[in-house]
Write a structure and sequence with these properties.
This protein is of the alpha+beta class. It is 62% helix and 13% strand. The chain contains 8 helices and 5 strands, in the order H-H-H-E-E-H-H-E-H-E-H-E-H.
Length: 282
């Protein structure tokens, strides 16, 4: 991703609207946000890859377990036949049978562990969604929606709930929704958060503070993060702000309805599952 904050601040430097001290402060903040966003994107990619590998490994283990069961049944039948025939091969077959049984038990235990962790992940996601839905019940249908996908809970807020057109100052009703969500996050420290700002594709007119839609979306995301962190029980290390501009629309087309859907702020909640990550690393 382009260095959004630095480009914006370069434009600001060319303007007489801000002092050198203010410019340097904004530049430092932009560089910090760029670094945090890059780290967060890398972590998201790693988690997605690990999740895909976990599912693949689980399928492979199921297939191996079925094969070992079949091998065990076949060897057991052959051993009994050899034993009945009084063959010297029976002793070797017995050792092989015992080894296959040991492997089968190990694989079965591995499958059980993986399935238990997968259930734990699904239960954690369902619990987060339930807690958030209860806290924000009064806002659903008023520009706020809650969904789950890719192992995460998405709280999506339309601009009509949070911001006026072209502004990054949060409206009182939207602020109340964010504060209610902050209360849930404060009580559940095992949830990580990414706040993403999104705009439509209508060009933003540059001014003394912002250059384009990318700047606007980043500033809106930062505004929401600061409001969440006003709750002192939330550790700043749990939250990342990201400006997406118009790059990730949820509705195609140039209609007013499509553009309204794309103007949104998404608060993405991910449960911490350290045990699952450790098991995946083995």
């Amino acid at each position: 991703m382009k260095k959004i904050g630095i480009l914006c601040l370069t434009a600001l430097a060319a303007s007489s609207c801000v002092s050198t001290k203010t410019f340097n402060s904004m530049k430092a903040e932009a560089m910090r946000l760029d670094g945090e966003l890059a780290s967060a994107n890398i972590r998201i990619e790693e988690l997605a890859a690990r999740n895909k590998k976990l599912t693949t490994d689980n399928d492979a283990l199921r297939q191996d377990t079925a094969r070992l069961n079949a091998d065990y049944s076949h060897l057991n039948a052959k051993y009994k036949q050899l034993l009945a025939d009084g063959s010297a091969e029976a002793a070797r077959m017995l050792r092989q049978l015992e080894e296959n049984q040991r492997q089968l038990e190990e694989r079965s235990q591995r499958v059980d562990e993986l399935e238990q962790m997968l259930r734990a992940r699904e239960e954690a996601i369902a619990a987060i969604r339930s807690k958030v839905a209860d806290a924000l019940l009064g806002f659903e249908g008023k520009g706020l929606s809650i969904s789950t996908r890719d192992g995460k809970v998405y709280v999506s807020m339309d601009d009509k709930l949070l911001f006026r057109s072209g502004s990054f100052n949060i409206d009182p009703q939207g602020a109340n929704a964010v504060k209610e969500l902050a209360a849930v996050l404060a009580q559940n420290p095992d949830i990580n958060v990414m706040v993403e700002g999104h705009t439509d594709d209508v060009p933003y007119k540059p001014n003394g503070q912002l250059q384009d839609n990318l700047d606007l979306s980043a500033k809106r995301a930062t505004t929401v993060v600061r409001l969440l962190l006003a709750n002192k029980d939330i550790a700043p290390s749990r939250i990342i702000a990201a400006g997406r501009g118009e790059s990730l629309p949820v509705a195609e087309g140039k209609t007013a309805e499509a553009r309204a859907q794309n103007r949104r702020t998404e608060i993405i909640l991910t449960p911490k599952l350290d045990e699952l990550m450790q098991l995946m690393d083995k």
